[in-house]
Write a structure and sequence with these properties.
313 residues, alpha/beta, seven-stranded mixed beta sheet, 12 helices, 40% helix
Length: 313
């Protein structure tokens, strides 16, 4: 598979744009180092999955067979679920660097490309050890022994994954679908439905394009919304207004309504839950509201929206 296809977290933008994005990313990392890592939200997500499974599918995570689409460079949800004894696997388009071994780095260079491989190495050396240690402590505080089996982590385009029909109870994905090409999503969504047993759930939470963070620019990441950088070049909801700046990651630009339409052909849509419905409200001045008059507030304050989907019985 080509590097372009397997590296959705980089984009063909100018070196100046890449440098600007990486400066802001480094700034956010350095600011976080000064604060205790706050990773409880990851376990909150898993508690939410368990509650939704019990409510809508009649079983808890401990009895479920689970698959994650896009476990990411830091597969913490995989670690938590495996530590809980859940039967779980996952797939990601990029090779993770978990131990920093030469073999991992060579695989990351080959699959992810030099830019992503170097970024992963820097983060692995400078920032990840502190965060991973904090997450292990968090798991132990819950009475769990941290575990992560790399053999359960596939590296592939999710559209190419083959799983037995009706073999899963839950498919979940966190902030991944916004970076997947529509042509791949049109294959992934029916594949998810095929993998699930009748009545099984898919919990998909994309960073919806129309929210303030949906542009995927570092200037408007959740961290930057809460901790504004000096001298922003772009405006709030820049991507829905002048759209002058491109992020250094692929964005498919799907709206909340687009996701509904995408899922409707294969699933019952049970719920939509916005993770932080007030995110960006402080920037929604009368002037900004006038510039965005063509967009409903439901779209503008979507940000990370969980679509609770059930395969029809």
């Amino acid at each position: 598979m080509s590097v372009e296809r397997l590296s959705p977290s980089t984009a063909p933008v100018s070196y100046d744009r890449k440098a600007a994005e990486y400066r802001l990313l480094l700034r956010s990392y350095l600011q976080r180092v000064r604060r205790p890592p706050r990773l409880e939200y990851l376990l909150d997500d898993i508690d939410e999955y368990d509650a939704l499974l019990r409510e809508h599918a009649g079983l808890g995570l401990g009895a479920a067979k689970v698959f994650e689409i896009g476990y990411g460079a830091r597969p913490y949800r995989q670690m938590a679920l495996q530590s809980m004894g859940v039967e779980v696997e996952g797939v990601d388009a990029e090779q993770p660097v978990l131990r920093g071994t030469p073999a991992e780095l060579r695989a990351a260079w080959r699959v992810n490309g030099p830019e992503r491989a170097l970024k992963s190495l820097l983060r692995r050396v400078a920032f990840d050890p502190r965060e991973r240690a904090a997450f292990r402590r968090l798991l132990r505080a819950r009475g769990l022994t941290p575990r992560l089996d790399p053999a359960r982590l596939r590296v592939s385009d999710a559209a190419e994954v083959e799983l037995p029909a009706g073999s899963l109870d839950l498919v979940f994905s966190e902030e991944v679908f916004q970076s997947v090409e529509m042509s791949s999503l049109e294959r992934i969504v029916p594949a998810m439905a095929a993998w699930l047993r009748p009545g099984g759930l898919a919990l998909i939470r994309p960073n919806v394009f129309t929210g303030i963070t949906g542009c995927l620019l570092q200037e408007w990441s959740r961290w930057s919304v809460a901790h504004p950088p000096r001298g922003r070049r772009s405006e709030p909801w820049e991507h829905l207004r002048d759209d002058r700046f491109s992020p250094n990651t692929h964005a498919n630009r799907l709206t909340r309504a687009d996701y509904r339409e995408l899922f409707a052909a294969h699933f019952e849509l049970l719920e939509e839950r916005v993770k932080d419905p007030g995110l960006g409200r402080a920037y929604y001045t009368p002037e900004v509201a006038a510039a965005l008059a063509g967009w409903p507030e439901e779209e503008l304050f979507s940000n990370c929206t969980l679509f609770v989907l059930r395969k029809p019985a």
